[in-house]
Structure formats: C-alpha cells, structure tokens
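Q: For a teaching handout, I want to show students what a protein-ligand complex looks like in token form. Below are the inputs, and the small molecule is adenosine monophosphate. Please produce the holo structure.
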Amino acid sequence: MKILIIGSGGREHAIAAAVKKSKRVDKIYCAPGNAGIGQLAECVPINAMEFDKLVTFAKEKEIDLTVVGMDDPLVGGIVDEFEKAGLRVFGPRKNAAILEGSKAFSKELMKKYNIPTASYETFDNAAAAENYLKTKADFPIVLKADGLALGKGVLICSNLDEALDGVKTIMVDKKFGSSGDKLVIEEFMTGREVSVLSFVDGKTIRIMTSAQDHKRAGDGDTGLNTGGMGTFSPSPFYTDEVDRFCKEHIYQKTVDAMAAEGREFKGVIFFGLMLTEKGPRVLEYNARFGDPEAQVVLPRMKNDIIDVFEACVDGTLDRIDLQFEDNAAVCVVLASKGYPVSYEKGFEIRGLERFEKEDGYYCFHAGSKLSNGKIVTNGGRVLGVTAKGKDLKEARANAYKATEWVDFDNKYMRNDIGKAIDEA
Ligand code: AMP
Ligand code: GLY
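A: Here is the structure, written as tokens, with adenosine monophosphate included.
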C-alpha cells in the first residue's frame, strides 16, 4: 500500500513510525512532514490546508489510504474533499470534527445526552457574558473560546476582574481570532487529568491505553499553557473503576450521540478527562490523536495500525482486538528556550544517530527541518524523546537518560515529567 500522512509534528512522526512497521505498506508520503519524518517517509511540500493540491497529489500517486493527523484540516473538511474525489481517508468528516472544532457544540451534546462534564453557559456577545459573570458566577471560573486556538483559548479566572478581562481578550480583542465569536463559561473542576484516545468506526469504539500530558511550560505545573511538554502511559490513576465508569457513561454514549445527531464519527476521539471527587468528567474532546500522547501510546500498540485504520473507515472495528504491550512509555519534550512565547530557530541538532541503534527509544521530531544537509530546530517544541521501560519508573529514567543524547542551542525541557507516578 501507499500511505499519505497529513501533518508536520511529533504526532505525525509517531503515526509514520507505526505505519512503517506495517508489513502491508511499501511507501509513505507525508505532507508537509519534517526532517525526522523525512527519514521514514517522502515529505511533500504541500501545506495541510491546501486540500485541492493534496487531493491531486493523492490521485497522481495512487495513494491507498490518507491519514489526517492535525485538527485544522479535519475541522476544515479535508475528509469530505478526499471522499468526494473517491479517495480512502482516515479521520472524521467536517460535520463530526465539530466535536473538537466547537466547544459550544460539544458542551451541548454532552448536556443533551447526559454525558458527565462541567456545567456551563454559552454566550455570543460580550455584554451578556459580562452580565452573567457579575450576577451569577462562582469563582474560580473557566472561560473557553469556542473554536480551535492551539490549546490556548482556555482561561482559568480566579476572580471577577480576571474574568471580565478574559471576556475582553477572547470576545472583544479577538486574541484567538474568530474562535472567540462564541464563549463558553464553565464550572471550575479539580482533580487529576487523564487523556484517553480511542478508535471509532461510526458505531464501535475501541479504547487505547491511557496517558497523561503536562500542559504547563514549567516544572511543578507553573508558567503558561503549551501544546504539551511531555507524557506518560499508562496513567496509574486510570483505574479499573474509572474505566468502568467511562465505558458506561462516556465513551459509547459519545459515539451514539454523534450518530443520533446525523454526525457519524469515524477516526480518533480523544477524551480529555478530569477525575473529580464526584467521578470522571469530560474536559474536552479532540477529533484526532493527542500530541504528545500519540508518542507514548502508539509505540506500545501491538496491532498493525493499517488494519485498525481500515476497520474504522470500513465500519468493521468490532472485528479488531486492540492490544497494547504490558509496559510503559515516557516522552520528554525538548523545546526551544522561550517557548511558548518567543524563541529562536535554526540551531543544529546533534546526536540523533544514537536513537537508531537503541531498541525501545524514539526521537520524534516536532519542529525540525533540513538546512544545508543538517537537521536544525524549526519550532517551539523541537523533539519528543520517548523511551519504554518495564514500568513507568524505568521508562522515565530511560527517557531522561536519552534526553542527554541530543543537543542543540537553547534546549529546554521540564525535569518533572511523570513525577505524579511517585504519588500513585
Ligand atoms: P481544554 O482545552 O478544554 O482541555 O482545556 C485546557 C486545560 O484547561 C485542561 O487540560 C485543564 O487543565 C484546564 N481546564 C479546562 N476546563 C477546565 C475546568 N472546567 N476546570 C478546571 N480546569 C479546566
Ligand atoms: N496533548 C493535548 C492535545 O493534543 O490537544
């Protein structure tokens, strides 16, 4: 088979590595890809939002299956364009990707179908939101821009002044663009967060092994929210009891709700869960693999990923027995100093060869490119150094050891990825 992967981050590198393991695959393309992906696949210089060019490319090369990794093209309807052209593609259509594309939509869905989540109100003008905050709100409170905002459109406000400022930032100043046309104001919840990824074929859902992300830039969960600074899998806090609760109240119910709304979901649903005192609650849905969750989940998957992708497309996921290794993985993100605000790019990355020789170690590229024959930094998040181990502690020690194999100027990482393991 010939496979086309769409995206350019660590997640797409992890997908490419899983696809590469399949005996059914002869050739992998990735658009636009990055320098690390380029070692497994042929990178094609087409942007993920250039749907016409991507469709033309897929037809020309007779691609058998296209896998969309990123949220923007999914929410923009790339799957519909591929299907219209008669091409096979893995991912939700536009009318289903709205599960991630609009927080107002996903909250309404959860309310209508009784899926546990924080209570909320939706607003389409700033005055009404301000009035609500002044008269009815308890603090802290959470403000969420409706649309995609690179994980940055969520503000936790500890008092009225902060919340009024937040409404201005999102709805008036439009810091997150048209994402802020609508605003969700949500009850603040506390508890541990767990990410659960799943494959869905429209009817059947198969849960992958759990993971936990670290969203803040600094040690001890301080500093700004980022795209994710590191992950571990499985989460020791995802107990059998939590699993049973989510299977009864969240997973299948979400898939059935989407189908009942005429929005059949095929692809990956990411459940961002908070384990509150009252039980698990949905924080958010994403319509694709998490990044960097994919970097710790996919290396532990035993199935041929192409079989699973095809089962989702064909509606035969009930025949797949999804299996994961009985071990653990930890991913530590190596970022550019200054991320997520401002940082320099273009520094040579040294020491990458070591990963080719070591089993159970991976260096997924998030922001890198080839420049004059050298691999250089090209983003805020640069590499996702991932290692497996027999348990979480061993995987964490291995991952931190491997962060020393690579070097570049302004290299920055958190030193406490997986610290929560010690409290489990
Ligand atoms: P989201 O993009 O909706 O996952 O939000 C980003 C982050 O904000 C989450 O991972 C949580 O850490 C935090 N967050 C979102 N919603 C809530 C909430 N209702 N209560 C507390 N924290 C929240
Ligand atoms: N790691 C969270 C996300 O992919 O949105």
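A: Two things your students might notice: The chain has a mean pLDDT of 97. The pocket of adenosine monophosphate (ligand 1) is lined by residues 118, 142, 144, 151, 154, 156, 186-189, 193, 215, 272, 283-284 (CB under 6 Å).
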